[in-house]
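batch job 7 of whatever, protein = Solute carrier family 25 member 44-like protein
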Amino acid sequence: MSLTAAEQEIACMRGGGEGGASAPETAGSLPAEVSWEMLDKSRFFVLGAALFSGVSAALYPAVVLKTHLQVPQHSQQPRPLLTAAQILRTDGPRGFYRGFGTSLAGTVPARALYMAALESTKSAVGTAALRLGLPEPVASTTASAAAGVNAAIAAQLVWTPVDVISQRLMIHKHKYLGGVDALKKIIKYEGLNGLYRGFGVSILTYAPSNAVWWASYSVSQRFIWQLVGYDNSDYRSVMAVQGLSAAMAGGAAAVVTMPLDTIKTRMQVMDCGGSMRRTVKGLIKEGGLSACFRGLGPRWASMSLSAATMITTYEFVKRLSAKPDLNENG
């Protein structure tokens, strides 16, 4: 079985020593890292799209709840439990999956762009950083941060229109018959710009969020392994540490980027549209700074859970997608 990128980084960290020595003795007994060049790209994209779609389906209700909290339909302060009860009372369980078809349709191209940009950038930047003489931990963290930014920008080319349509379906359920109808009406009345409403804020939200996430994920793993000690014979521990590191990184990113996410959602959903400045003024007038953090609970839970699930799925997909000759040699 091939070694994941995260495991290879852990192995290097454990044996590198203070003098910047090369790979540790334990690393020599472990299979090689599954890098971008080692992947069967077709299998990687197909398996990734299938598994990530399943994860997205499980976490979608939290996204619906967060959106309703960020764009309340009345003047009262929205509350998570009351809002969830209202969705159930009005639409039943199906209410938590409004817009999911549109979101799922965008998952395949968006995930393909994200994973391709992430892996290719990580490989290129990591190699360049090592050639420049940077220590492996610094090179790994730098490559992860750069890959996160590049992947976020690439994916938003697809995700922004998908977000606009799916969020409109969540909030304005009586205005649109479905995803295709929403697409037609947005283009008819708002033009292509309507599909990319909030694109700039999305980049401002997700580019730094991804940079912080991937960098802190790498650092968190190193920190945890230093505390508990690395055991290459127990793969369950490896997965547990990956999941915990991802959850920590996801939760932190949720808190840091929450105000921008609220602003982005308002700009994409509200019929009046408007500039970022006008949206911020409206939020402050409506509920002060706390209004920018509406939906933080569901978003924090969703991003932490999503991060832990996604990263373990992601590493699993990479192992399954390693070219056959690598598995035979490893």
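notes: The chain has one domain: 38-321.
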